[in-house]
Amino acid sequence: MKRMIFSLFWLCSVTGMYGQITLKECQRKTQENYPLVRQYGLIEKTKEYSLANAAKGYLPQFALSAKASYQSDVTEIPIKMAGIDIKGLPKDQYQVLLELQQNIWDGGGIRMKKKQTEANAEVDKEKLNVDMYALNERVNDLYFGILLLGEQLEQNALLQEDLARSFRQITAYVENGIANQADLDAVKVEELNTRQKRVELASLRLAYMQMLSLLVGEKLPDEAVLEKPLREETVSAASEIRRPELTWFDVQKTSLQVREKALDVGYMPHFGLFVQGAYGNPGLNMLKDKFAPYYIAGVRLSWNFGSLYTLKNDRRVIENSRRQLDSNRDVFLFNTRLQMTQQDHAIRSMEKQMQDDDEIIRLRSNIRKAAEAKVANGTLTVTEMLREITNESLSKQTKALHEIQLLMNIYQLKYTTNHE
């Protein structure tokens, strides 16, 4: 009894210093602490850099080239005049060329590249949302596991109290000759078994608390009290599914639409201005065998029809990807609804089981009291009485187990549908 009072005092002290830990608080801190959260910033930075690079396509483009060549023959003027020496072109030629190109219209290529960058970044972000949302399930499992172990430890302490009381009674019976040392040993064995079970439960709860501490990113006290969530049955098997996976499927479809529009860019004409400045031998005057500077400026049109050969198949590939995406979405919704139906039935089943828990405990308590009276009268063995004490303890554990399992099933259904 003193041990129970000390434990309760310690738990109250910890609660006062630290405050009760809630499920929503654990989920929030896990979302903020998990290393994967840093990828949101990386995705945004990558998007900014890619958009900046795409915008630079409108800037003037410079290209520098140089060449030296020797050719076996050159163009000659087939005219000979007396007293005039017409020199032909040199066979060794040299050129250094600097060209400036200014894009006027590229068929919408830069604009589509920006749209693709934004669409891809949105897909990556929504995929990250899916991965981050999955953390809530891990937090739920640990949180309700700790609650369940806490209930089992509490029932274990009550059983130890019952066994200690029985040990004192049987000690008195031994003195009166009603019981013997073997009966005391039987009670002692049950006490030791219960103590061993407590060590196992406490060790497992400590491991769960440490794992929860890692997820939330801060050290939780080993004896911290976890608040039991409210029993909120706001969802059912007919509830709307609001999972982030659905948004992920939607943005993937948007990305496919952008890809399909980008196919049109491949067969559009490109317009641009260009300026070339060069120094070489020969210059623009091919008849002068000497180095000379020169420049050329103009407008350039390029129109490549090669993409038309594969355009139809490219669109078919995108259409197949769209159908595959729709199929994956349907599979996800089917499996989710199947899971919702299973969880909803588990909730209803647990509610029906819990209707008789209190009555079972009351009857087990009466049986235990009757067994203790029979032992006092010498009409029942201590072993049989211990069995009834254990049965009463198991009925209380079963009720506590049902309460936590019901809450766990309700919050699993809330996770499956993403309802608050």
CATH superfamily: Outer membrane efflux proteins (OEP)
Give the strand order of the largest sheet, numbering strands 1, 2, ... along the chain.
1-2-3-4
Q: What's the architecture in CATH terms?
A: Up-down Bundle
The general outline is rod-shaped
Question: Care to describe what's here?
Answer:
Keywords: Cell outer membrane, Membrane, Transmembrane, Transmembrane beta strand, Transport. InterPro entries: OMP_efflux, TolC-like. GO terms for molecular function: efflux transmembrane transporter activity; porin activity. This protein is an alpha+beta fold and 420 residues long. The chain has one domain: Outer membrane efflux proteins (OEP) (Up-down Bundle), CATH 1.20.1600. It has nine helices and four strands. It has a four-stranded antiparallel beta sheet with strand order 1-2-3-4, with no helix packed on it. It starts with a helix and ends with a helix.
